[in-house]
Amino acid sequence: MGMLEKKEESPQGTILLASGAWTVESAASLWAELRPLLGQNLALDTSGIERIDSSGMQILLQGKYLNARQGKVFKLLNHSLPLLKALDVAGLLGTFKDPVRINYEQKQSLLLTYSRNRYSVYG
Q: How does the average pLDDT of the chain come out, rounded?
């Protein structure tokens, strides 16, 4: 199952650690965890996401959309490889407009098709 945990809180906003499987099986519980936190500046450290499907991506898109409507930040940090691959296949990497930093080894295993020039390589 997927999960969210508060990693850090400050006057600028909250960093949440996202982990596990963000799939249809866990979507309702993930949304129940995330929804009350919206309306403040949020950053999701997504390095722990092991699997994601369209339900998980919908939660991320909805969070981004609802926060943007309130003038708040909702950004993704430390993209996991499963998340990057899913965002690429869905053509959504540019939609989130979050910087993606991957090292050379990750780049070799990623082979992005649709979003080839939308990330920077570090490492």
A: 87
